[in-house]
Amino acid sequence: MNRRTVLTGFAAALAAPGLARGQSSAAAVAKANAGVVGIISGGLDGTYTRFAADIAAVLDGVDDLRILPIIGKGSLQNIADLLYLRGVDIAIVQSDVLAAVAQQKTFPGVQQQIQYISKLYDEEVHVFARADIRQLSDLAGKLVSMDNPGSGTAMTGTLLFSRLDIAVQPVFDATVNATERLRRGEIAAMVRVTGKPARFTTPLPDGAHLLSIPLSETLLQTYLPSQFTNADYPALVPPGETVETVAIGAVLAAYNHTIPERRERLVRFARALSLRFEAFLQPPRHPKWRDVNLAATLPGWTKFGSQEPRAQPRRV
After folding, report:
1. Any domain includes 1
2. How far, in Å, CA of 210 to CA of 228, rounded?
3. Are strands 66-70 and 36-40 parallel, antiparallel or unpaired?
4. Residue 139 placed within a domain
5. Total structural domains in the chain?
6. Rounded to the nearest 10 degrees, what angle do helices 152-163 and 97-104 cross at?
7. SS in 3 state form for the chain?
8. Maximum Cα–Cα distance for the chain, whole Å?
9. Do residues 130 and 242 both lie within one domain?
10. How far apart are CA 39 and CA 87, in angstroms?
11. Which of 93, 133, 178, 191 is positioned for an S-S bond with 75, CB 3.0–4.6 A?
């Protein structure tokens, strides 16, 4: 028996059960996609990605759901993907992104098209600096990485330094590249907006540390006060000390589908999230799940299911 015959026989054996049940390829495709919910998250090292992975681990198979986590490029791009990209039903974004895109009129009608299933947690603004930078004002005129263009970090970092009146020179690099550039001394600092503790594929260089973000009335109009401790970052914060920072909410956002079957999947997803929530509070799930309150409201956002969707012809 030659190799071609063996492979042909193997393929036929795999297909046989479906054929025996009289399934057509179209029926098989429809069945495979019936419960699929695509969740776009963040970069490889981010908390968004870990949350999406946790959601898939806990909810996949519940109520016939199939959860597909997708690596994303940050809040602004996630909004665009949620609006226009096939297969994306849910996105994890920063809570200030909806107001930002509405103000810029980037996506007309976005506040009707995108709603929230739940606020997740507060994520902290991290400013990792090289050893010779002692305070935030030392970054004036220096190169500061703010993640990829269009990311939530880029949006928040730009706004933050503007409100603090510190004129940095922004550069846009993914976290892995920025960490390496910080190691080589090519940039003075890097900004990350993510839930503490942040993880790094490439370790931070020796001498790198977290800069304190001084609180002000201007910042507190948009952000929440937060801090880093030795428990969060044993190598960066000495025992007994704290580093002040600010935080912003992460949101599980949904596309307000008019397509009945896709909307029904989101209803099933929201129900499963509520019913299985206790599982997210147990190891090995991310510790930030313990900060999640499914009943929390979000100013400026509409709760998914509270309004009937309007016609949205751009989405398929």
Report:
1. no
2. 9
3. parallel
4. yes
5. 2
6. 80
7. CCHHHHHHHHHHHHHHHHHHCCCCHHHHHHHHHCCEEEEECCCCCCHHHHHHHHHHHHHCCHHHCEEEEECCCCHHHHHHHHHHCCCCCEEEEECCHHHHHHHHCCCCCHHHHEEEEEEEEEEEEEEEECCCCCCHHHHCCCEEECCCCCCHHHHHHHHHHHHCCCCCEEECCCHHHHHHHHHHCCCCEEEEEECCCCCCCCCCCCCCEECCCCCCHHHHCCCEEEEEECCCCCCCCCCCCEEEEEEEEEEEEEECCCCHHHHHHHHHHHHHHHHCHHHHHCCCCCHHHHHCCCCCCCCCCCECCCCCCCCCCCCC
8. 79
9. yes
10. 9
11. 93
Q: What is the CA radius of gyration of the chain?
A: 22
Which residue, among 52, 89, 75, has the nearest Cα to 249 in the 3D structure?
75
- Under 8 Å between Cβ of 153 and 191: yes
Other residues' Cβ atoms within 10 Å of the Cβ of residue 104? 9
What b/e sequence results for 48-65 when a residue is b if at least 16 CB atoms lie within 10 Å of its CB, and e otherwise?
Answer: bbbbbbbbbebbeebeeb
Confidence of residue 201 (pLDDT cuts 50, 70, 90): confident
What pTM value is reported for the model?
0.70
Q: What is the CATH classification number for the domain harbouring 244?
A: 3.40.190.10
- The amino acid at 109: G
At position 110, the amino acid (one-letter code) is: V
pLDDT digits 0-9 by tens, 168-200: 999 999 888 999 999 999 999 999 998 888 888
Q: Minimal CA–CA distance to 276: which of 58, 117, 53?
A: 58
**Single-letter code of the amino acid located at 274:** S
How do residues 102-127 score in pLDDT, each as one tens digit? 767 778 888 889 999 999 998 899 99
What pLDDT is stored for residue 233 in this prediction? Answer: 93
* Domain co-membership, 118 together with 254: yes
